[in-house]
Structure formats: structure tokens, C-alpha cells
Prior knowledge:
The protein is an all-alpha fold. 55% of the residues lie in helices and 0% in strands.
Amino acid sequence: MFNSTILDVAIGMIFVYLLLSLLCSAANEILELWLKKRATDLERGIRELLIPNSPSGTINDLVHKLYDHALINGLFKGTYSDSGIVAQNWIARLWRYIKGTRLPAYIPSPNFALGLMDLILPGTAPAAPAPGAPAPPPPVASGATGATPATFDVRLAAVPPPPPPAIAPGNPLQPFRAALGTNPLIAGNPVAQKALLALVDAAGNDVAKARENIEAWYNNSMDRVSGWYKRRSQVFILVIGLFVAIAVNADSVTIAKRLSTDKALRDSLVAAADAYAKANAAQSPSPSPTPTPTPGVASKPTPTPTPTPNNTSSNTAATPTPKPSPTPTATADACSQGACKDNPESPQCKLKKSQCELQTLGLPIGWELPEEPQTNWPGLHFWEGGFWSGWAVQLRIHFLGWLLTALAISLGAPFWFDLLNKFIVIRSTVKPKEKSPEEKSKG
């Protein structure tokens, strides 16, 4: 069904798309870190969870106090009010979108649950006596002889706090359930109030179970936040992929034609793809532009394997595969050494490694191609006379190839990594039969 040339061209194209996807994924990660959209998505998710009808860009006491609670405020600098999330006009909202926010992109579910429960029913703790101070006298029942009036710390409140509600025998969650109906922070939000009442009732008399129910409620809502991030990342990577395809002239049609006619380039690319697949066989194919966050996390990017293959495993050492000369990996490592010196896992390092790997493969990518005399860089000076006519010619020649490249990149690196492994397996089963045909019997 397939001959070796078709398989090799397919493997080469898949490997090119994999490297371009890694490059665009790293660029998208840098863009996300700069815009800090994960933190904005997390705040929006919490707002829609607790106050579904609250308009964005306004201050609500429940969300405000939740972010300023000690369990959450320690995750970011400043307070909720000065984080830049609240914008009063479109100019402030635009500046906030560009500048980002100080709010955290990650809130653990226990911090959310405990902070929310403490806002609804604040806990009370006795003050620790000063060293050497005499122990306080035992409490005296009201109305008894020698009773002293209740005292309070003027630094905390001007009047003594009201006594806690009576605890029903055998139901430690009754005070919290009663606070859901009396606390103005939650009483003014009927949707969250009904949800919390249902979660508390489902816990029975178990306080730990109630906290776990609130954590699960929060984790389930983060699935929606993950969906927002995935959809936005797909759009971003499609736009970035089209921009990269035009900037470096990564025309899928031109690359496929060159691979189908240049056997040396085809063999070199297949060897590099095979080495990459073997080096990353033990790793999870996670160079995804749309990582799936873990429960309780707004969206944490999944670490991506570097595009530079390591040493092959011991079980494959007995069957060496042909490698191009000079080795593209060694050249790519030398090229990206400066960007990866401080942090090999940084998005900047991954971006540079993908760039260097593409440059060392000798692919027909770029605007100076001897085999394509019609390919000329039209420039960026739109006020010059030949700008529009030049770009019109290049769009007519390369637009289909650029569009195919951008659409392929938008599928994501995990897709191309899995497909690369499948095609390499197919090639390993087809290639030996072609190299050693059955000999005719002598007789």
C-alpha cells in the first residue's frame, strides 16, 4: 500500500510539523506568561462560581474578601483591589489586558475551601498569655456572685462579638449551616448559598466531608476554566502558526515537493525523526499548546520535552539507525546553549531549541531558496510601490502552503508526536522487506 518514499516523505512532514508546533507552543507559553491570562481566567471562574450574575470589572465583597483572606493573599503580592483586575473604563480594561494582573494563576482547592468556610463562619482562637503572666481566672456563670463583665481587646473590636449559635447535639455542622443564612457575604448570593447548603447537607455530621465537598465543587468548576484556556490557546497557536509560516516561509507544498525529490534530505530528516522518537519514547508526549490543568488549578502549563533527543535506550543499542552527518542535534545544542544556560525548561529555551533544530535540518524553509526563483521577500515598507504587488505574488504562490502549515500546527505537538511514532513503527515493518527481497530458488 505504501512504498518507502511515501512513508519517508510522510515522516519528514510530520517531524517538521512537530518542530513547528513545539516552537509555536513555546511562543504561546511566553505570551501567556506575559499577559497573565491564567490568573484572569481563575478570577473569572471563581466569580462565576460564587456570584454568577455579577458583572466583570466590579468589586464584590465575597470575592474581594476571599482573595484578601490570609490563605489566598499569601499567593500573590498586594491585595485584590490593587491587583488591576477591577477596571472602571475601557482604557483601564485595555491596559489591564496588556499589563496583566497580580492575582495568582494557581489556588489550591484546600486554600479555597478553608478560606471560604472561614469567611462564612470565622473561627475564634483564645489569645496566648504573655510569658510570666498569671493564668486568667476561670469563667464565672452569669448572675453568680463575684461575676465580672466580659472583656475584649479594643484592638480587635469596639464591642464584644455576639455569642456563637447553639450547637445542636450530634451535629457540628449546624453553626456553619446557620451562618449560611445569616452571613451577609453569602446571604446576598442565593446561587452560591443553595450550592453550599446542598454540599453541607450531603456531608451529614462530618466537617471534613463538608470541606471535601467544597473542594470538589471548586475543582469541578476549574474544568470550565481549563476549557477557556484551551480554546484561547488553539486560537492563539493558529494565529502564531500562520505568522511563523509567513515569517519563515514554511510552505507545506514546497517542503513536500523537495522531500519527494531529494533522497539525501529525506533520509537525513527521517534519521533525525527516528532519533527524536527513540529519545522521547520514555517521556509522556506532553509538548501541548493546550495543557490540561490538574483539579484545583486554574491552568498550569505542562512541561514540554525539549526537541533535542538524548541517548537512545539500551534495548535499541543493538540496532543502530543511520544518522545524518553532521548530527543536527549537536549543532542545535551548540546553537541554543546561550538561551538554555540559566533554565533549560524555560519557554525561551524551548523556543530557541526548536529554532535551531529547524535550521540544522537543511529544509527548504526561508525566503532565499535557490530552487524557488519566484520566492522573494517583499519587505515590510508598505509605502513603497512594489510592496503590495510583491506580496500579491507571494500570496498567490505560497498562501495554500502557509495555510496548511498553520492548520497543521494548530493540531498541537502531542498529535504529531503520536503520529510520528505510529509511522515509524509502520516503516520499521515495511523497510526490512524492501531491503532483503526473497531470493529465487536455484534449480
